[in-house]
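Below is how a single chain appears once it has passed through the pipeline. First comes the sequence as given, then the structure the pipeline wrote out for it. We keep one example in the README because the format questions we get most often are answered faster by looking than by reading.
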Amino acid sequence: MLAGTSFRLAVLRRYGSAKHAATELFYERSGPIDTVLRRRPSHEADFSVALSQSAARVELLAFPLTLYDIAAIERGYRSAGVAGAEGIARITDAGPGSAFQAGDLVLALPGMAGTWRDQAIVPEAKRALVAVPAPLRKAIEDKVPGMLERAATLLGAPAIAHRLLEDNALQPGDTIVQNDAGSAVGLALVQLAGIRGIKTVSIVENEMLDDDEPIRGNEDPYAVVAERIKALGGDVVVSSSFAQQTAAFRELVSELAGPRGMPRFAFNGAGGASANQMLHCLQASGTMVTYSGRRATHPIVVSTSAFVERELTLKGFNLIHWLEGAPRERIQSMVDALSQAMVKGMLTGWLERKSFATLETADIATARHGSRARQLVAITKAGESYVQSAAS
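Resulting structure:
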């Protein structure tokens, strides 16, 4: 009896009292977040359970609230359970075959189901986690402002943007056009394109669609988002209503592209009218790549002449599928490159943080309708030690 009591006291000293007991956000069926998402005590709170050879026990430090996470809950893109697919964690215990050891900082891969929680047991750690590179880890441990939040998003929007540029063989001096540029992916595209010497034309949505909610007060108007894109290195930023003036928009794109001609690639995260407007700006045999985005469910209507006369190509990209199929060394190479850009301050995003302990469904719902320009990153109790001020 005494031994059991001593063990429980040790756990409380290590992981906090009942006031800060480990919790997780879960759902048992798909549906509206405010209906199906619940907070409960962690189902993996028994720290006396021995780990298998390949498993690791982790404390989550921070995780972003993404559009994919929300779609997974509301549209059933993933199996029910603990929500979340991205985040950064610290290894607290590891089996000898896991490839990790206590104290390592790691990023969640698709093999780790559920990141919206304080702690987890990862059965196949080698498949589900990737190590945070040493320079980024040092920056996090040194509490460089914003570094933990940036790292938590690395295998999300920055990775999508990296792959869009890397896999399509874009070169310095090229020009790309993108819509939904105020999204996390759009901002990452602007910064990573700038690093590569690629020019960007960014369309910012400024028109309400049927499933949008009004932005609260004067909180994130088009001008604020456009200014942020320019501050991150965007070359040309226009509203979606301006892009509808096809001739004027094409002329603007042509002036930026210069002697290389119209862009070869457009990146679509919105669908609908702005996607069609980008197609008009592609050169013959150009390509539009669609990735997940806030308005990506809105259809794209393409004329027959776009295929027959201009030989345009439409294709899609899914980061989860890429991560599941890519060789480990290729994933690590991408993580290393993005980490380097983050440490150098060249890949910052536009982030705000909130304590996981006080996170409400209302906070998550703001991301669903784009009524929050900054991407929200939740910081757990364990993660608070890596930020200068968890209260801000």
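The chain has 16 helices and 16 strands.

See the next section for the split statistics.
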